[in-house]
From TrEMBL:
Keyword Plastid: no
One Gene Ontology cellular component: plasma membrane
Regions that span the bilayer: 187-207, 219-236, 437-455, 461-484, 769-788
GO MF term (any one): P-type divalent copper transporter activity
Protein name: Copper-translocating P-type ATPase
Native source species: Pseudidiomarina aestuarii
A Pfam family recorded for this sequence: Hydrolase
Leader peptide range in chain numbering: none
Length: 813
């Protein structure tokens, strides 16, 4: 590089010029100079700019106003740079059949915008799914890079009049600042103009200047026109753009009657001022605009509060990691350069930057960033350490298993976006009702004008204007989305991720709770308390434990994890494999096949072992796991588990609220019943195979909606069919995929927190919708009858919308 890159102010990201995170910046070499960047996205874009020989972008940009500086040079804004594989790895993540990315869309203001974008993208070949969320202004796209380029998707959205770029969590704060400034500027103009115009209007209305001549009165009208014009042309601009886009999408939204009312009131008042006859309502134009902008601004603040919690987590991750070299020494490297299998060291008190496997024997970590639970969690050798957690007491070593977009922390943010993009049925119904109401409102306004043209032609226009303003369904459109956003935000703070927002509407109808035992009611952290060798003359204890360890080597059941750890403490490594094939049998255990009967093993439940040895009776009634070959039962093991924290009080509260508690477990009744008795569970179905659990679920669903809580591989089918499915973050993959709600916080009180919040959300949605409908039912005949002036209608409509928004904000507390 022949020219020196210009410097930027200290404490700012060199690329986006936003404030660097307090936790530390990313150091990056750009054109031979060391610069500081705020996030991985900025680093990836800066590298791409350098690779495309576009460093003049940094030399000639004007840094005096950071919010006006583009994030990409014009050459890169053609969007083709986003087809670069390395850049996509930074901004998207791999999923089945392709990649998935979240796009931030500028200019998307309502459901009509979302519908238009979704409809156009669905026509593209190579896209598997598109989820558009007008609330957060994001689009989640799942596509096949082999069939369609990302730049083509971005260009399609650009062709509709929107600007879409890959969403970056660290950039979200500056985006919201920009949008806040956008609204504050317009709100300020509208507010100042309203104050000036209202002083004149009050004087005219109440006769304070009634003794003045017509020329002075017209002069005051001209002053009002002067103040109202910037309100109409500048402050009200968001409503016009939204109305035009909704008309383009053939889905008229609430901004259509708003725009008609503003333009009509201003036009008629301006005509009256020019001709010096009739009445003026400039105060209605400015007041109506001010109140609507105030509602939109408060809505924006509510969105920001809901979205910032999880998105800000990613900014807390370190940018640098200590990677272990082959000689045992460490080197500092950027986190984005870590690959799977790298070994890194995390000093005591530092944040873990990636997901990894613990290489130390034991460690304690604080996972409050993810779960909200401040108590230290104990991790043992080979357990997963999550990005964002902190080892406060000791330095640890981990082997990288996932980084950046593949970490659990990144998946939490993705799950939150998914939840916010999926509207509950009640919200969709309210939105559809609002859209239909707009069309009926326009018809009603036309009929009102026609009728009053015969009754009182001079008042026909103003009465029609009042109808358009007073009956605008803003409150109805805000009723459900604001409540859902608030509920999701509150649950996220409690360490609960909602994947399907429909559960908010179903909770109230759910009166039966089906619960798995192992890993759900209990922690799933087993320990061996007793075991018995039935063939001591043929097999030593060490040989028995060696067989158990080899059989459970690839198993993931909580029993298997405990048995592997227990057997590894005593058994010697096997030097040869005694069987040809090993098979996992869901709900039963592990089996092998071999030429010799003594090498055909089963390790699992009593009923499964008794298929080979029907006369066998356990030595200990509480034994859960048995080892046998085709000739004899070799051993039995008794395991003990602990109840999940707060599960007892949680189930007691659910039972007191009228929920029927039912346990579905694969364990024998002798293990299940004591746990059920302690927890107050009335019905127990023991020794259930996956098919049995499914049949019981169908039985209870015939009586009403059912909530299911499970965590195992065999719970996947039941969770998928349940009306509400809840699991824990450490559950089997199949269980997490099927679940509607994931409890990142492993404590049992997450169940009651979810239910309480969901019920509050449902109640607030109902309150909002009822109020919005009641308001319109009352105000329509009043407005049509001519009892409202336009400024009175503006106050009533704005107050209705603000009441709905403030009611929804109660969910944030």
């Amino acid at each position: 590089m022949s020219k020196q890159l210009p410097a930027v102010a200290s404490g700012l990201c060199y690329h986006c010029l936003q404030t660097l995170p307090h936790e530390g910046a990313i150091t990056h070499s750009l054109a031979g100079q060391t610069v500081e960047l705020c996030c991985y996205g900025c680093q990836a874009v800066a590298s791409t700019i350098e690779e495309h020989n576009l460093l003049h972008f940094y030399q000639f940009r004007d840094t005096s106003n950071p919010l006006q500086v583009p994030l990409l040079p014009e050459e890169l804004q053609e969007l083709k740079a986003y087809d670069d594989e390395r850049l996509q790895e930074q901004l998207s993540h791999s999923v089945e059949d392709g990649r998935e990315i979240t796009l931030s869309v500028e200019g998307m203001t309502c459901s009509a915008c979302a519908w238009l974008i979704e409809r156009e993208l669905e026509h593209l070949s190579g896209l598997h799914s598109v989820r558009v969320n007008a609330t957060t202004e994001r689009v989640t796209v799942h596509w096949s890079p082999e069939r369609i380029r990302l730049s083509e998707i971005l260009q399609t959205i650009a062709g509709l009049g929107y600007r879409a770029l890959p969403f970056q969590a660290a950039q979200q704060e500056s985006d919201f600042k920009k949008r806040r400034r956008y609204f504050v500027n317009r709100l300020g103009v509208a507010g100042l103009a309203t104050m000036q115009i209202m002083m004149i209007a009050i004087a005219l209305y109440f006769g304070v200047v009634s003794d003045l001549d017509d020329s002075l009165r017209q002069f005051m009208w001209w002053i009002s026109l002067f103040f109202a014009t910037p309100v109409l042309l500048y402050s009200a601009q968001p409503f016009y753009l939204s109305a035009l886009r909704s008309i383009q999408a053939r889905q008229p939204n609430m901004d259509v009657p708003v725009s008609l009312a503003l333009l009509g009131a201003y036009g008629a008042s301006a005509y009256a001022t020019l001709t010096n006859q009739g009445e003026v309502y400039f105060e209605s134009v400015s007041m109506f605009t001010f109140f609507l902008l105030a509602g939109r601004y408060l809505e924006l603040l509510a969105k920001q509060k809901a979205m910032s919690h999880a998105a800000n987590l990613i900014k807390l991750l370190p940018a640098i990691a200590n990677r272990e070299r082959a000689d045992g020494s460490y080197e500092a490297v950027p986190v984005h350069q870590l690959t799977l299998g790298d070994v890194i060291q995390i000093p005591a008190g530092n944040t873990i930057p990636v997901d990894g496997e613990l290489l130390d024997e034991i460690a304690q970590v604080n996972e409050s960033l993810l779960t909200g639970e401040s108590r230290l969690q104990t991790k043992t050798h080979h357990e997963t350490m999550l990005a964002g957690s902190i080892p406060p007491l000791q330095s640890i070593r981990i082997r990288v298993t996932a980084s950046q977009q593949q970490t659990v922390l990144a998946s939490i943010i993705a799950l939150q976006d998914t939840a916010l993009s999926r509207k509950p049925k009640l919200a969709a119904t309210a939105e559809a009702l609002a859209n239909k109401f707009v069309i009926r409102l326009l018809v009603l306004a036309g009929a009102t004008f026609f009728a009053w043209s015969f009754i009182d032609p001079q008042q026909a226009f103003w009465i029609t204007l009042a109808v358009l303003v007073a009956t605008c369904p803003c409150a109805l459109a805000l009723a459900a989305p604001t409540a859902v956003t608030g509920a999701i935000h509150r649950l996220n703070r409690a360490g609960i991720i909602v994947r399907n927002a429909d559960v908010f509407a179903r909770v109230e109808e759910t009166k039966t709770l089906l619960i798995d035992k192992t890993g759900t009611l209990t922690t799933g952290n087993f320990r061996v308390v007793k075991w018995h060798n039935h063939q001591p003359t043929s097999y030593s204890d060490s040989e028995i434990q060696q067989r158990i360890r080899e059989l459970e080597r690839d198993a993931v059941h909580p029993y298997a994890q405990c048995l592997k750890q227990w057997a590894s403490e005593y058994a010697q490594p096997a030097h040869e494999r005694l069987w040809q094939r090993l098979e996992q049998v869901h709900g039963a255990g592990v089996s092998t096949s071999a030429a010799k009967p003594e090498y055909c093993y089963r390790l699992g439940s009593l009923s499964w072992i008794q298929e080979w040895h029907p006369d066998f009776v356990p030595t200990h009634a509480q034994s859960q796991v048995f080892l046998a070959n085709q000739r004899a039962v070799l051993a039995e093991v008794e395991l003990q588990d602990e109840l999940r924290p707060e599960i007892e009080s949680t189930l007691a509260a659910l039972k007191a609220s009228g929920v029927q508690l039912v346990m579905l477990t694969g364990d024998r009744d002798v293990y299940a019943q004591p746990v059920a008795n302690r927890l107050g569970i009335d019905i127990v179905h023991a020794q259930c195979m996956p098919a049995d659990k499914l049949r019981w679920l169908e039985h209870y669903q015939s009586q009403g909606s059912v909530m299911m809580i499970g965590d195992g591989l065999n719970d996947g089918p039941v969770l998928a069919q349940a009306d509400i499915a809840i699991t824990f973050s450490q559950a089997a993959d199949l269980a997490r995929i099927a679940a509607d709600v994931i409890l990142i916080n492993q404590s049992g009180d997450g169940i009651s927190t979810f239910r309480t919040t969901a019920l509050r959300c449902r109640n607030i949605m109902n309150q909002n919708i009822r109020w919005a409908l009641l308001y319109n039912v009352i105000i329509i005949p009043v407005a049509v009858a001519g009892f409202l002036t336009p400024y009175m209608a503006a106050i009533g409509m704005s107050a209705s919308s603000l009441l709905v928004l403030l009611n929804s904000l109660r969910l944030y507390r």
